[in-house]
Amino acid sequence: MAKKVLIISTSIRPNSNSEILANAFADGARTSGNEVELISLKNKTIDFCKGCFACQKLGHCVIKDDANAITEKMLNADVIVWATPIYYYEMSGQMKTMIDRANPLFTLDYRFRDVYLLTTAAEDEAYVDEGALKGVQGWIDCFEKARFAGKVFAGGFTVPKEIEGSTKLKEAFEMGKAIS
After folding, report:
1. What's the whole-model pTM score?
2. Running DSSP on this structure, what letter comes out for residue 7?
3. CATH no. for residue 135?
């Protein structure tokens, strides 16, 4: 049965390597017949969480911006994929802000079960994405029906589009293709 795959690209850089990696994952997931939507946080208004917890009672955030529509898409997705550049050994600030703003999901009957992480960075050492992975795992741990399903880390890329031609794109494609 086809799954609804939501990919959230958190880089705001034009032609970003993490978004190119996300597109490769999306192509793979589509190849297997899944319904895929890629949302970019570029040009989106997403304010910081105020910590008021009104969302726990209302089922949605009281802040009126683009985060509410994205959270609604997250609620109805079977698979969530986060794509982020690594900044200072951690996920992008845009990604963390979106994760915080998805707090209404905690009390709702969310559909997602599998969560993936796609990361790119200038440095290429294996440990570079560990902070982002820990942050995503912390988010997943709050959702008892969800699990971390896999990751692709692509290091050694600093300028836009530099990832093109990398074997990491094939790795992301194959990971997406394996969703069924």
Report:
1. 0.97
2. E
3. 3.40.50.360
